Amino acid sequence: YSIQYIGWSAFDKIEFENLQDSVLTGSYDKPYEWQDGWHYSIGGTYYLNNDWTLRAGYMYDTSAQDKVTSISVPDSDRQWFSAGFTYHIDTKSNVDFGFTYLMG
């Protein structure tokens, strides 16, 4: 399990500066008005036998964006449902599979 505080508001405004000569503007600011968020997750592993290991997990993220949106960060609260397994072929080889379903 984990709980994390994410300080998105530190990126409330991003400043860009063009260091090369260009006909384009030398610099500009991009306001985001991001809000701080939280990340909660929990997961588990079950050792079925010597050959199979099963895993599952759940994660919830709160959105960093309120009014101004960007494709750079999640734009809504999100839920993640994950599952996977490992098949132990021998002492040196494994096959792993994982799947995540994202809502939000």
From TrEMBL:
InterPro entries in alphabetical order: OMPP1/FadL/TodX
Keyword Membrane: yes
Main location: membrane
Cellular component annotations (GO), alphabetically ordered: cell outer membrane
A GO term for molecular function: long-chain fatty acid transporting porin activity
UniProt membrane topology term: Multi-pass membrane protein
Protein location: Cell outer membrane
Keyword Signal included in the entry's annotation: yes
Alphabetic keyword roster: Cell outer membrane, Membrane, Signal, Transmembrane, Transmembrane beta strand
Domain of life: Bacteria
Membership in a protein family: Belongs to the OmpP1/FadL family.
Protein name: Outer membrane transport family protein
Lineage, uppermost ranks: Bacteria, Pseudomonadati, Pseudomonadota, Gammaproteobacteria, Vibrionales
